Amino acid sequence: MQQISSVNNKLVKNLAKLNKKKYREDTGLYIIEGFHLIEEALKAHKKFKYLLGSDEALSKAEAEYGIDLSAKNVILINTSISRHLSATTNSQDIFMILKIAQPKEFNFNYGKWVLLDNLADPGNVGTIIRTADAAGFTGVVLSPESVDLYNPKAQRAMQGSQFHLDLIIKNLGDTITDLKANGILVYASMLDKTAKQLQDFEKEPQLGLVIGNEAHGVSDFVANLSDEKLYIPIKGQAESLNAAVAAGIMIYHFA
Q1: Is residue 192 within 8 Å of residue 219, measured between CB atoms?
Q2: Most buried of 18, 65, 102, 255 (most Cβ within 10 A)?
Q3: How many CB atoms lie within 10 A of CB 242?
């Protein structure tokens, strides 16, 4: 086990930069923190680049997860470094560095998928992914313009679901083309004169469900590629539903 005691250490400085999208893209690495996320990563047999933690946190990781504290990629850090690395107010003083693993090619020939069209809020993205996992969906596809999947806030909101289902960053036009080529219907959620109420749709054994940007909704390009448009009726006076809440209602309708 290594030990680092200064926030000015080169490795610590570089790892702290992983809270920024550009550095994640440059290095192909991302950071998660907290015992629950790290436990889920280990359950999914993810190999970590580094595991950093306080003496107490690493002792717990050894006792509960069987972490080999003698390994060179396990690093003992102090509270100052923990605060420097953390993206939360109350850190649990344990961090894992993982490789970003996006498949170069993916065949959408089966399953139920949520397609996120330029979503901007990491909390919404993480919550939708967690909901899709809970409902037994196959995976979630994020358009390249959506918020970064490896954003720390998005990672926390997923609560480990990122290790349970397929998460793909891919052009939605290509994704919808692939789904339809395999006989999978694609529904776009949007307020439109031609849209039908959610209740009018039966469950499908396989489908793609498009959720649009929080402010602008589903893009015209994606909507025109979809097989059907649907909406959730508003019975009260609220103008609209939060994107993650709306997605949850629709996901479970088709689960």
Answers
A1: no
A2: 18
A3: 14
The pLDDT mean for the chain works out to: 96
Residue 169 has pLDDT above 90, yes or no: yes
Say if residues 206 and 186 touch (Cβ distance below 8 Å): no
Rounded mean pLDDT of 90-113? 94
What is the pLDDT, as a whole number, of residue 8? Answer: 96
Backbone angles phi, psi at 70, to 5 degrees: -85, -5
Strands 74-76 and 94-99: unpaired
Distance separating alpha carbons of residues 88 and 49, to the nearest angstrom: 21
> What CATH number was assigned to the domain covering residues 112-254?
3.40.1280.10
CB atoms inside a 10 Å sphere around CB 120? 14
Percentage of the chain exceeding pLDDT 70:
100
Torsion region of 102: left, alpha or beta (phi above 0 gives left; psi -120 to 50 gives alpha): beta
Architecture of domain 2-99: 2-Layer Sandwich (3.30)
Same fold, 2-99 and 112-254: no
The full set of domain ranges for the chain reads: 2-99, 112-254
- Amino acid 231 reads Y
The DSSP line for 156-221 is: HHHTTGGGTSEEEE--HHHHHHHHHHTT-EEEEE---TT-EEGGGPPP-SSEEEEEEBTTTBS-HH
